[in-house]
Amino acid sequence: MADLRVTVDDRELGATWTDDAPATRRALEDALPLSGDAVRWGDELYFDVPVDVPAENGCEVVPVGAVAYWPPGSKLCLFWGETPASVDDEPRAASPVNVVARLSDTSALEGVDGGARVRVERLE
């Protein structure tokens, strides 16, 4: 069962918290709901969040559907495919990110453009 509702324009997605970066997760949970206008970088969307936490179990290669925090820019990122940094078809961040959740289905993100409005909130 999903923990989070991720809305990208008119597309609603479910996401489940992971245990990969617990301090980052706590900081993001405390800041919910989060929203912003996203930038698209390949098959990744990212937007500013009011959270400042250091790298925690950071990785560049992430699974499809990863929801991750990028410490250098205080961004929340949604990954669903190749980015300009990818090798082959792997989702790859520009630099290490803290993975905090996983989207259950990313197919709705295929046609999303940069500038999409993203909102992340708890499911009640």
From TrEMBL:
It holds the Pfam family Cyclophil_like. InterPro entries: Cyclophilin-like_dom_sf (IPR029000), Cyclophilin_TM1367 (IPR025658). It comes from the Archaea. Residues 4-121 form the Cyclophilin TM1367-like domain. This is Cyclophilin TM1367-like domain-containing protein. It comes from Natrialba swarupiae. The lineage of its organism: Archaea, Methanobacteriati, Methanobacteriota, Stenosarchaea group, Halobacteria.
